[in-house]
Amino acid sequence: MRPRRWGAQMSSSEFNWESLLCTDAAGRSLKAGLFTTYDRADGRLLAEHLLPVLLHLGREPQGEGTERQYFLVELHERLKQLHDKLVIVSSAAREEPEDPQNPEAEESRAYPWIWRSIRSLTVGSRRRAVQHAKLWLLHWGANDEGIEHLEIVVSSANLTHAAFKGQLQAAWRACIELRPQGSQVRLQGWGILPAFLRKLAESAGDDERLEPFVELLARAECPEGVTFVASVPGTYSRRELKGTPWGAAGLGEIAPPGRGTVSISILSPFVGSWAPDALDRWCIWFGGLGKSLKLVWIDKRHPWAGRWILPKSTLTVLLGAGAKL
To answer: In the predicted model, what is the mean pLDDT of residues 223-249?
Structure first.
């Protein structure tokens, strides 16, 4: 049985709980796919769990003997058909040495042959950089009506076994009809997303690799009421951020109009380290104050409480700024 990582998924019309290992384009052939992750992708997770779902493989990876061999042949053939059409972008490999007794280290080295067909890119080719986004863009072939679709998934899940095995994640998913031709107007409707893809490719040292996915965005209408916010490697002046609002500047762009103080509610199972001055600068970008922050936290008696992490030093900073818990 494949591991089921359950998480909250949101579409334009519903909010529910389901596995991220699914698709809204069931029954159709995958033509291309882009996946971004912070940690490098686990080969075993891809080969035994994600790819069998997306490629609609007819054999089970957990089979034995002949069944197992048929699965490997089928996976190999489908990946050859998609050679260089599947792209994964990640941050650099971790610097600490791998523990040979760690089963996850073994998983990350499993199925080395799949990387002959999957293009793996690492950010930081020109300067030190990290890539935290978890974005999937899936190009699905025509359905019975001859219509192709672009499926977009924005989540909090890395492409690692740990992220799917024992962590609570959140995801937004949309499956959008593709027009036969691209349009600059449609591309502009995606806001910062096309620029994010191009910056990602630039940082990975392969400027043209993600251009086919930008072209797909030009063939699709951005869902109504959806605005993307993204961060990219680099330091930018206020003038530059007015033209292309990366990071916290993007929050300011989507803040409601008016001169009042913006209130933000944050729901996250992990909060990192924050210093008072960094928190103040972050709030200034979107017209907020520390006391306008609301951190939604899990009840300490909930069975998931042990997986929600907030450093004591950060708690002190938040409370000192007047944030509400």
So the answer is: 88
